[in-house]
Amino acid sequence: MPLLYTQSLRREFGGVVAVSDVDIEIFKNSITGLIGPNGAGKTTLFNTITGLDYPTSGFVFFKGEDITPLPAYKITRSGIARTFQNIRLFKEMTVFENVMIGRHFRANHPHIVKNKLINFILGRIFVKQEEQDIYESSLKWLDFFGLLDFRDEYAKNLPYGKQRELEIARALATEPEVLFLDEPAAGMNPQETDELMVTIKRIRDLGITVVLIEHDMKLVMNICDKIIVLNYGRKIAEGTPAQVQNNKEVIEAYLGKTDE
Amino acid sequence: MLNFILLIFIYIGIYAISALGLNLIVGYTGLLSLCQAAFLGIGAYSAAVLMTAFHFGFWEAMFISGIITALCGMLIGIPTLRLKGDYLAIATLGFGEIVRNIIVNWDSVTKGPMGINGIPGPELFGFMFSSMDKISWVILIWVIVGISYYFVRRVVRSRVGRALEAIREDEIAASAMGINTAKYKIGAFTTGAFLAGIAGSLFASYNQSVAPLTFDFMMSIMILCMVVLGGLGNNYATVAGAIIIVITSEIPRLFGISHIIPPQLNQVIFGLILVLMMIYRPQGIIGRVKLNYAKILKKEILNLEK
Amino acid sequence: MNLFNIPHNELLQHLLNGLTLGAIYSLIALGYTMVYGILKFINFAHGEILMLGAYAGYYVYYLICDPSQGGSFVIFAFIISLLTAMVISASLGVFIERVAYRPLRKAPRLAPLLSAIGVSIILMNLAALFFGTKSRKFDYPIDNTTIQLDGTSITPNQIMILAVGLIMMAALKLFIDKSKLGKAMRATSQNQAVASLMGINVNFIISLTFAIGSALAAVAGIMMSLEFKLYPTMGQMAGLKAFIAAVVGGIGNISGAMLGGILLGLLETFGVVILGIPQGLKDTIAFSVLIIILLVKPSGLLIKNIREKV
Lengths: 260, 306, 310
Known about the structure:
Chain A is of the alpha/beta class. Chain A is about 40% helix and about 20% strand. Chain A has 11 helices and 11 strands. The interface between B and C is large, with 44 and 46 residues.
């Protein structure tokens, strides 16, 4: 059974159908690419799955459970993390703090939760374990991305490529099982993109399933196990990179009809 | 003269407590609330009713009023789940007006436009605080200012404060990080209202009376000015703001020229403060103190650094 | 009291009163909605522009005529004072935008709102300092003897308010839908950057929006002072309620503001008569309507729900 799948997921804005009855299946420990021309509904699909938007109809199942009605924060807590197309870091916070926020809810140590009030009054005794966990795991993720040297910089002062990495680090700090990346290579130069490919593979090697929207075909074709193609909100093809590359409908979607 | 200065410090203290609460809502969480005066009013009236009609002692009344006001804060916090920026501001303003309307019209409890008189002072280990004895009042109120300050400081320097900051920066990103933004936003409103409720009961007990017209929109603006003037998201700047604003508005009385200077002039000054601060120094005179949570953690909690 | 045992002439009376109030709210709401449509910001000082417009009209009116004498000259003087008030309010609106809002156009959203609240407080209190806090009556330019119609009484003043309101709204709707400048305004509210690329002078359009909204507010202010009274804080409550009307109709939507104003006027009138809400709690109606609409359909009646784009 797939780790995450959708059942005729649909999102309409007024009369416009942004996502039209899409079924996708994401298998554990795979890298899935979601491609399609601009306005094909890729980001809307991401938003409806991750709870930032609600579908008009249809369902999202994760680990066998229906997560469609859950708010975004509960979906994240269930093990789905994401990044944003237009980078939504906490700009006025430091690199370290951004990752700490990602770790925020995971650090609910069982007996801290139970004794919330006592914990607040007594202060540091219980808080210590909780905060130690946040501190250490944040350091771990910063190290994973080689961002340790930047930890006290404000997020807004990082170079663009590093901001993208920080956003992924922040998402990983929530300890997800599935990571959704919305155009992770956008704005990167070829060398940075190459590094990103390595990073995404390293993330997969940690046992995390990756789903990504990307326009950089080199990246998509190189690292994805499976590719799903959307056009006008509909899924028009899916398969291995080779299968998708030779699909007539996909070529038409990208280049326009050839028989005219 | 000394009495008058003590009086000013009593008022500064009461306003500082409310302003600290508002700073938590506006400065740290980034939600513009225009009903802090209504919270003060709810606190003052609850304390007044509890102490006069039900003969509660001051401390119990203060605590219960704080809770009642906090519940009202929770109530107004609920719309904040769906409202953004200006809409929220208007909703809180509307809430403030509703509260004032209810206070004026609910005669059987609030005595309507007459207000409630004969509110007793606090008693501590047999010592009665009387309104004549301003020095003890100054001490009492500033001890509570100190506690409130420490309390807000603890909150904003903790994990909770980090979450509030993230919500202020980017609410959608915060919710995508698994933060229950609704809980924190309502929490900020509840806590801010609680502090205003405490300040309100002090206000009622010190003045020995409450009247509905005191807690109007202008009072909310005055408290907002204190927070904005010092610097949003900075507690000691907020207290400094309270000192400056209260002294500014009391200067005419201080120099005995209140009959020449009309009260409207004060309000013109508050208006000017808001406009000029926004244009020339939106961060406030002192400005926001960016807390470095990684350093706080290292130093205060994990003791990794001496 | 129940809706069904009110005699129909009385019902008609309340309907008329509600419509008159609603027409005034609509005129004010238009200013909020137009500015919000373009700048996505609540011009908190709109109520004070209304109040100052009313005072301007008042002073011009009494400068050039003595209303107690009646006659056609008084009507002429009234029209002149109405027009002067519109011009003064329009200039004031444009001036405020230049001084207090334009420098903050790129600032975080809290900044212009706080600045607007500041402007509102300054104007309200300056008015109290200069004009005094006592309320004044604006004398009717026309004979205001009540006309009895089948048990319903209507004053010429009410007829005038309804007529003026209707004409102004129709003219505005026509201007925005049909004229070239109206088209430019709509384009600017859709996307400022693109509009300016298309050769539209965005700053001019914003000033124009403030001018039109403020002129309409001046008209509403004078209508209010005729029907009710004139005092320095008159703009505060009227402004808030008109804003609520704009939200009810769907802020940013011109027709919505008109609809919302009328609805709110009717609700307030009938809320007191039918639901038996005490007169003292009348203002609570509007705010409760606001909170309910914000919770149920925050985008307003005439706008489809749109979620923030991620």
